[in-house]
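Lay summary. Proteins are chains of building blocks that fold into shapes, and those shapes determine what they do. In this project we predict the shape from the chain. Here is one chain we studied, written as its sequence of building blocks.
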Amino acid sequence: MSMSGKRAIVCSHISSAFSQPTFYTVPPARISRHGQQQQPSMHASKRLLSKIKNVVEGSSGARNGARPKPNSAGFSQSLEEHALQASITSLPLLGDVLIRITHSGYVLELTLLDWLEGSPVCWEFSERIVPMPAVVLSSSSGNQGSLMRSANGTPSSRGREAFVYVLLEGGTLFRLSFPLTTPFFHDEHWIAKGGWFHEFTLPSTVTRPLAVNGCGMVLQGERTIAIPVNSGAYLYLDIDLSNDGQLPDKLHYPQHHSLLSKMFRTAQEQDSIISMASIDVNGTNMLFSISRDRSLRVWDKHRGNTTSHSLPATRSPDVATGNSLIDQRRSSSVVRGSSVAPQSAIPDHNTAPPLLPPERHTFLRLYFATNSPSVNSLRIVVFMPTPPGLYSNSSSSSAGFFSLYKLVGSRFQKLGEKEASDRTERCFLRDFIIKKVTGGHAEFEIHCLWEHSGESMYEYTVLDMETASHPSHNRRHSNNGDISMREVGREVGSSGSDDEIDDYGMEWRLIPYLSTPVNSGGPPTADSIDFLASLDFTHPLIESTILQALFVPGPGGFSPYTISEALKDYVEAKRISVKGDNGSSDPNSALRKALSKQYPTLRERVAALVGAVAHEGQPSKDAKGTRSNIVDDEEINKILKLRRQWEGFLASCREIEKSGHWPVALGVVGTRGLGGGDSAVPLAGECVVIERERMGLVVNEDEPLELYRRVVREMQEVDRIAEETGEIQLPTTEDWSVFLLRLALSLKSLLSPSSWAEVAGQMSGVIKASISDHYGDILLDLGREIHLENLDATEWVFEQLDSLEDSEFAAGLDTISRLIQTTGVAEAADNVKQEDDEEEVDRMLLQSDPRSSLVATGGVAGANALLGEINNHTQWSKSLTASYLSATLDARYEVASSIVFLLMFIIFSQREESPSPTAIVIDELFAGLRSSSILRQIASRAVEGDMDDPADGLQSVFPTIAPARAGPRHMRAGTADSMSLRLAGMQVGAGEASVTSPSGPTEVFLPPSVGSTFPSLPPTVRGSGSSPLLQSLLPPLKRSFSLPYASDAFLYTNGIICSDSLLVACQAEVKFADDLRKREHFRAAANVIDWLPKNDACCYLAGLLLMQLGRHEDSIGFFERCARSFGPMASRNRTSEQALIAVLPSSLSTLNSLPAYYEHV
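And here is the predicted shape, written in a compact code that computers can read:
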């Protein structure tokens, strides 16, 4: 059973996780709030491009290869699909709703995360959107949970609608209304009626334009909206459709501490609101705000600003809270009080701290300390950033500190403070949330999202400010799954004692990304600046190799949107402007020719356009040189030119991809409407990181991930200490699996990346060959081939091994073998019937098509959604699961390969006193290495690129026999292994056989004919790029989505990872290859068969695969090999027989009739 490991963040790209959104244009206002008449309506895409061109500064520099400059202080460059602002709301019936503002502020995108067919919907507006648009459900006139069927039979909720409120910078408020009938927000009949939007005008007292990077708006309840306006005032609006577009409003201005303090205020900008939060306390909506002068205020809809408090710019010297109410009387007052401005807000300097930045920030959060919402249990958490340059002499190097307050009457009482970690010295707080903890000692946690050099950094800690002054709580700690961080940012080893965990239990913990490489020993990936330097540009398939790395799903590759935008930049940069008549020569002829063709996929478009200029012509010949020298010079110049083209394109990809990692907001999913707008803190759920073009979920690591990443972190810590002190101090442990893995990874680190690639290749050769010798002899021969005698580590390795008993050594290997094959809790969880839940039933009844939640098998769809197999996977959960699987499979492969290498070293050294592994253990480890290698290779594939994979040395579409790779050392001639060489060289591509991608229709763009108009690239379409192949293979999820459960469910259903012998191809492995063949993933199926022993089942599948590709003659040999298993005199073993029956038609399952078999083939 899988234990909850340490926390990590698994990410997926939005452009590949969700389908292409549906765009709707909201009719523009009749008169612009800037006093200008609106332009006539044009096509949506042209209008968006025109707006973005005018808004984004420096867009004209793209022609020279430069990206647009930042359009605000809080963001770097903004591309169309990159979010400027985002949030997640949990609503009853609808579940989790993702709201994003894209296209430089002109488009609002809404996505239902909990629905299998939650296709995004986008609304385009004529003006830029003010931050924090909101969605809410109307209250029903009866039972809120009652459902009914509409006239057309689709599920609906009686008398309820979904309202989307959007405020534009010109002072126009839109309310979009949609019935709760499926498809949600996509009902064409409802939209055709024209009554789905209502426009309201803000009063003339509001200064325009509203700041699009300002604080935005807050929705209170269903129909009340609070908007900060006029540099510090609040405008309350009650939405009423009966007033013909005129809204009842109340405008409240901030009140100051005294007349004297108000007289000395130099500008209204000091009162500008930069952060706000609202909460419902027993039916009364309370609004809190922070202004630029660090004033914390409470607002009431009828009375206006009721309470004000000046926040300190630095931490208080005494954080004890025993008499804090008395101490705070000078710094907090009722609106009409007579206290002067508090001195605590001014540090020990002659000047006051500078104003806070004018952009919107998340510096304020509210929550209830108990389960009974009341003013007494209300808590206010405030973050104050460290003023730049004001405290250069301070010992603190953090980005700021958090303060906890409560309301006592009409005053604020300070309960405690907590400083941010030292890691945040050069960071900026993008968002933070207060999360209720369902178990453990802590009740609440602070989760923070920091921007660090344009990337996300996630930290959390226990919210212990209120209890920090009590001695009994000084040693509290949180869940066992938390990552405890030392004061200097170093992690506490899990081998430490409980006292060590308690000592650092209140410190900040860093949650890493699963995509973050923990080991730099692998070859460079496409997102590395050293990637091209590691390639051989003289190879004929160099461009195909680059494309394969470019479209790798997950870490190392790029998102489809990134590649599309980089391709646009590349075309603009390579296009040469021609003025006047340049004769017959056209410098853009090669580029124009490539653009004038149509390409079914993004991959083929990139292959044709990048490098088109390099292939256009040949360099001029030198008359003085010999012919051979001329050819050499031409080839060298061509190679250099081609490399420059790819360098520029990859540099643009890296820049756009990094921009997409810019942190935007935090959210919580999994609450299923228990929180949302009715509660300040969700009762359950997991934290979500929203970036410009990615979304990440905080999850627990499974056992293989936890073990591998833990050991790597310990080794990195040992290396750091060794560099400082010159001594190597390995942490002690009684976990023998940790000890052996640490020793194996240390031994592996002595090899260079190229040397380790050779070792991994030799291991793969052994796996793909038929094993005929003893494992000890095989490992001994492998050690000789890679020259292990040159590795000077014998004394050190055996010095470590001498500390282990033989039983401890065997126990460690058994534990590692079990971890590689583990499927976690999936088997136990799937066998337990899931309890009925009312909200789950409601969500199931609201499915647009009950069969959409079922996965058809054998071409037969589920007959009844209520009785059939429910699939709890959504588009986003599938994408996250594929990313998580890629990470855990990488970890299992690294563990298995490193341990096998350690055993190879032990056997090669031939020490009599050294522990010797048994053949059974070696067989299990090799089987685990094969299983993880197969699934790891599948995880690195994209659906689009599965038809043209250059990694196996493919050279043409359907060759008779492809060049065979070098056979492994232990291959016996004249057996099925010789057929495996033919299978490994089998070519798969789009030739005579028609291959249709299961992901949907291909993307075909017909450019204009070649002429005076320069051909343009098609618009970027989601789903047209590198959709992970693994994502399309995920089985239905029987229980609610969570990780690592969804990952374990795939491994358990697939069954490959449970293989325990290298000598046979089990039933699960051949069925997986057959399933890939049936789905027409021919390349992936051929690779899986190549890894397996060539028994009769594999030969049968190879023959079918060749038949599907039109290579009938080549399939004969494989079918003949399989024929030996039929008939009464056939010789076969039980395992091979079961594997063959699993892929044969039911009519041949008895294996008794050889004529029936020949008739079948």
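What the prediction tells us: Residues 875-909 form the longest helix (35 residues).
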